[in-house]
Amino acid sequence: MKKKLRYGLIGAGSNAEKKHLTGYSALPHVELVAVCDVNQEKAKKMAEKYQISNLYTNYTVMLDREQLDLVSVCTPNLFHADISIYALNRGVHVHCEKPLAISAVDSQKILDAKRKSGKMLMIGLNNRMTNEAVFIKQYIDEGNLGDIYQAKAGWRRRSGIPGRGTWFTNKQLSGGGVMVDLGVHYLDLVLYLMGNPEPSYITGSTRRTYDHTNLRNRNGYAGNPNGIFDVEDSAVGYLQLKNGGAVSFEFSWASNIEKDTTFIELIGTKGGISLVDGRLKIFSEQQGTCVDIVPQLSPNVKLLNEFEHFTSCILSGEEPLAPPEHGVYMMEIIDQFYRSASLGQPVLLSRRERTAAVIYD
Ligand SMILES: NC(=O)c1ccc[n+]([C@@H]2O[C@H](COP(=O)([O-])OP(=O)(O)OC[C@H]3O[C@@H](n4cnc5c(N)ncnc54)[C@H](O)[C@@H]3O)[C@@H](O)[C@H]2O)c1
Fold this sequence. Notes:
- With 361 residues, the protein is of the alpha/beta class.
- It folds into 2 domains: 5-123, Rossmann fold; 131-303 and 332-348, Dihydrodipicolinate Reductase, domain 2 (2-Layer Sandwich).
- It has 11 helices and 15 strands.
- It has helices at 14-25, 40-49, 59-65, 80-89, 104-117, 131-141, 171-174, 178-193, 306-316, 324-343, 351-356, and strands at 5-10, 30-36, 54-56, 70-73, 93-96, 121-123, 148-156, 199-207, 234-241, 246-252, 261-268, 272-276, 279-286, 289-293, 347-348.
- The strands form 2 sheets. It has a 9-stranded mixed sheet with strand order 14-13-12-11-7-10-9-8-15.
- A hairpin with a 2-residue loop joins β12 (272-276) and β13.
- The longest helix is centred in the last third of the chain and has 20 residues, at 324-343.
- The chain is globular, with a radius of gyration of 21 Å.
- The N and C termini lie far apart (60 Å).
- The model is unreliable at 355-361 (pLDDT under 50).
- Residues 10-16, 36-39, 42, 59, 74-77, 79, 97-98, 124, 126, 167 line the site of nicotinamide-adenine-dinucleotide (NAD).
């Protein structure tokens, strides 16, 4: 029998339980060896539920002792970089939650450590791995949309702050508000589907409206009335691409809209695709007329499983489909999105042009 991959979890919070422990505990070739959380009670609860015998409150001690093959990093965003780099330097593969880090600089440090270590790192961008996303990616890569020249992405909630006053609303710990939380998923999704095209400039606008009330917390997220709330709860923007393409986006944790919604739309010379609240549609032409196509993807057939995918990449040496290079690309866009929002004007995105563009500095 082949040796099982020795797995450790760092950050035993809600995402760790919903995603990572559920996902990895279902894989026969993975052994859940250790769990770490600075909050011992949380680590203990998770260890008991998933029958994990080794419990830590310090990730360096866990990584030094346990001879792990793979860890999940599910802590607040600020700690992703230090933990991922420590694990990679110890020769451990890393499944790091999104965003890769709180800035492009930190993301680049992770990428450098990954390259030096020869180990794998995959970002937990699960929206790339839904049946719809897998279908769309293949459909686009086969050339069915032609040249994509317009796209939009959005995720808007009416009352969905993930706990006012928790680390999510504390800029130092999170790196940003809804743009870093939901924007990282859906702006990433459209750009990934387009093949991560080179950006040209970005215009961003942010607003914080609900820092004074607990009314707009997401269901089940209590929040801390005395905690810090210094991030945006809504974000809109426009990204111009070097190839002439245009991408618009809008995200909110809370806003006065009828209902929560998620959407992406990609429009190309040969066809268009929309995915609105999970409903996939294709728009094209056939036999001299416009046609709508509604693919019927079976929810019972999972086209891609994030955890199987990453372990199979570890075993085969194939690059995972959400590598750290994509995290650096996204955090460069997000850093300049915030810069544009604070300056109140567009910001150039190409690194070379940005240093030359005195007008925006
Ligand atoms: N992919 C997704 O859909 C998705 C969904 C939710 C959250 N996330 C991401 O998952 C991560 C965690 O989010 P969450 O909702 O689980 O937060 P959470 O607050 O529920 O859990 C975070 C846990 O990390 C622990 N922690 C803090 N610092 C630590 C450290 N230095 N070492 C070990 N443990 C530490 C905390 O005690 C807490 O238990 C974030 O990066 C978030 O962006 C991703």
